[in-house]
Amino acid sequence: MTKRALVVVDIQNDYFPAGKWTLSGMDAAADNAALLLDNARKSGELVVHVRHEFPTADAPFFAPGSEGAQIHKKVRNIEGEHVVVKQHINSFRNTDLAEVLDKNDIDEVVVCGAMSHMCIDAVSRAANDFGYNVIVVHDACATRDLEFNGKTTAAADVHNAYMSALQFGYATVVSTQEALANKV
User: Fold this and answer.
1) Which helix (H) or strand (E) holds 130?
2) Could you give the CA distance from residue 38 to residue 50 in angstroms, rounded to a whole number?
3) Domain count, the chain
4) What tens digit of pLDDT does each residue of 83-132 get?
5) Cis peptide before 115, with omega less than 30 degrees from 0?
6) pLDDT in tens, 131-149
7) Contact residues for 35 (Cβ-Cβ < 8 A; gap 6+)
8) CATH code for the domain of 61
9) Distance CA 126, CA 123 (A)
10) How far apart are CA 159 and CA 8, in angstroms?
11) Domain extent at residue 59
């Protein structure tokens, strides 16, 4: 039988409109993540929160000890839920994430959070490489516009490109409603 964990990545205050690094669609993504979180709690699934904190106070966002680096109230952890604090894009790098998953005999991870093109991509690919079955809930993830070589790519296009790449070889990509209906 599959043993599943919900991994909620970087849904932190600085990514919301009043924060230092606002993402497109973060409120809606957090609302969907909250639905996934409620479902996981009711189902007794392991819930792991990942929180990014840069190592120095001069960080552009997620400064150590700042309110912006705290988990947003929509998905705040409760007693007994593990919180991984990371300083790198990949949630597995120099953290105890793999240890927590393995200690709980997890073989499938459901991933949501931010940013689609960075931490969601990295944790999903790494989880797959470590042998976990990976499910990414696309509408519970958010990102922002990106610029390269003088051209701006809209957040929706960035998000779609990364979700399609993950779906191609690293994860099953579903909507919140599909995840809640256990269609994965």
Assistant:
1) none
2) 17
3) 1
4) 999 999 999 999 999 999 999 999 999 999 999 999 999 999 999 999 99
5) yes
6) 999 999 999 999 999 999 9
7) 140, 176, 180
8) 3.40.50.850
9) 5
10) 17
11) 4-180
